[in-house]
Amino acid sequence: MKILIENSTDIEMITESVGNKKKVIIKGIFASAEVKNKNKRIYSSAIMDREAKSLNEKIKEMGLIGALDHPPTPDYNLKDAAISIKAFKKVDDKNYYGEAVILEDTPGGKIAKNLYENGIKFGTSLRGVGDLKLNEDTGVYEVMSNYKLITIDLVSTASNPASKVMDAMYE
């Protein structure tokens, strides 16, 4: 199986205060199905629905973290934590909405928060493993049913064609 990563930047950033501590919250479309992305891949709705369900079980049972940029392997390592993913759900025929909190006391979280505070835009990206099947006529790769979504990371470049960076909002 190959490491498969997909990006989205259709997110909004919100700063939320809890006591004296501010939290940066990321909200928006984290992924899309049935759409060719810049990596020339298409994820079926059936695969994304299944993986969204699996991801939400992980979130509910033990929490889920994402890294700042994709690590070189698909492994899930606590030392790479930059965000805590709080939600990932389907909102229409093809889009999956997510919410995450920047973990500002981790090295990756500190960098992400600093980038955010200095106006640097970034997005989210799926990190998973699976096989691809090339459609010779279209040049598009279909993500196969053995795909496993591991987590969602913060990245600088988006592959989701419908995505755009949204301005930050403060609460």
What is the helix/strand order?
A: EEEEHEEEHEEEEE
Helix content: 10-25%
Spatial extent as radius of gyration: 16 Å
Sheet with the most strands? 6 strands, mixed
Q: Assess the beta-strand content as a share of residues.
A: over 45%
Overall mean confidence score, pLDDT: 84
Number of strands: 12
Could you tell me how far the N terminus lies from the C terminus, measured between alpha carbons in angstroms?
A: 43 Å
- Please tell me what the overall shape is: globular
Structural class: alpha+beta
> Low-confidence parts, pLDDT < 50 over ≥5 residues?
163-171
* Largest sheet strand order: 5-6-7-3-2-12
How would you describe the oligomerization state of the chains in this entry? single chain
Question: What is the helix tally?
Answer: 2
Short descriptors:
171 residues, alpha+beta, 6-stranded mixed beta sheet, 2 helices, 12 strands, 46% strand, disordered C terminus
Describe, in plain words, how this protein is organized in 3D:
The structure is a single chain. With 171 residues, the chain is of the alpha+beta class. Helices cover 17% and strands 46% of the residues. It contains 2 helices and 12 strands. The strands form 3 sheets. A 6-stranded mixed beta sheet has the order 5-6-7-3-2-12. Strands 1-8-11 form a 3-stranded antiparallel beta sheet, covered by helices on one side. Strand 2 and strand 3 form a beta hairpin.
